[in-house]
Write a structure and sequence with these properties.
This protein is α+β, with helices and mostly antiparallel strands and about 210 residues long. The chain contains ten helices and four strands, in the order H-H-E-H-E-H-E-E-H-H-H-H-H-H. A four-stranded mixed beta sheet has the order 2-1-3-4.
C-alpha cells in the first residue's frame, strides 16, 4: 500500500478517534462543571442490589469516593424497600440498575455509572462507554452481566475479596498518612512553627 492510499485509509480512523476524544472531553467538562446540570442531576440516588457481591464492591468504591455528597445509596434488596413511589417495579430495578434524580426522574443502565463516576471524579473512565461505536456493546454487555450477576459474583468471589482487601488497605494507608500529617503540624505548632493547612479552590469558595 503506497503512502497516498495509507493516508486515505488512516485519516478517517484518525478523525473518528479524535471525535471520540472530544466527546469524552465534553462529557468530563460539561455535565460536572455546569451548575444547572449539577442541580438537576445531583444528589443522585443509586438504587443498587446489595445482595450482589460485585454490585456491593462497586458501591463501596463509590461511597468511599463520595466526598462531595453528590451520591446517595439505596439497597433494593433490603426488606421493606418499596419501589412503587419511584415509578418502577422491583423486577425492573433488579434487571438493570436505576437511579433517581432530584426531580424524581429515573436514570437506567450504564448511564447511571457514567453519572456516578463523574460525580466522584472518575468520569474519564466512564466516558468511553458513551462513544457511539462502544455504547451499544457496553449496554448489551452490562445487561447480560445484570442477568447473570449472582453466578458471576460467585465465580469471582476470590478476586472480589482480594480487591476489597486491597482497597481497604489503601484507604487505611491514606488515613494513617493524613493522621501523621496532622500530628506533625500540631507538633510544629507547639514549637512555634505553625503553618496554614493548604486549601483547595473548592474549600476556599466554601469558606467565602
Amino acid at each position: 500500500m503506497n503512502d497516498s492510499k495509507q493516508a486515505l485509509f488512516f485519516d478517517p480512523l484518525f478523525l473518528f478517534f479524535q471525535k471520540q476524544q472530544l466527546l469524552s472531553k465534553n462529557f468530563l467538562e460539561t455535565p460536572m462543571t455546569t451548575a444547572r446540570t449539577a442541580s438537576t442531576t445531583f444528589p443522585l440516588n443509586l438504587l443498587y442490589d446489595g445482595a450482589c457481591p460485585v454490585c456491593n464492591l462497586e458501591m463501596d468504591n463509590l461511597k468511599a469516593r463520595n466526598s462531595q455528597g453528590l451520591l446517595a445509596f439505596t439497597d433494593i434488596s433490603q426488606p421493606g424497600f418499596d419501589p412503587r413511589p419511584l415509578g418502577a417495579s422491583l423486577a425492573d430495578m433488579s434487571g438493570l440498575i436505576h437511579a433517581v434524580r432530584p426531580d424524581g426522574s429515573l436514570v437506567v443502565g450504564v448511564e447511571v455509572f457514567r453519572l456516578a463516576y463523574g460525580a466522584v471524579g472518575l468520569g474519564h473512565f466512564a466516558a468511553p462507554t458513551a462513544w457511539p461505536l462502544l455504547k451499544p456493546l457496553v449496554d448489551t454487555a452490562y445487561a447480560s452481566f445484570a442477568r447473570h450477576r449472582y453466578p458471576i459474583s460467585k465465580a469471582l468471589m476470590p478476586l472480589l475479596e482480594a480487591l476489597r482487601s486491597a482497597r481497604a488497605a489503601g484507604r487505611a494507608k491514606q488515613l494513617d498518612a493524613a493522621a501523621k500529617a496532622a500530628a506533625d503540624r500540631a507538633s510544629a505548632c507547639e514549637q512555634g512553627h505553625c503553618e496554614l493547612t493548604p486549601t483547595t479552590p473548592t474549600q476556599e469558595r466554601a469558606r467565602s
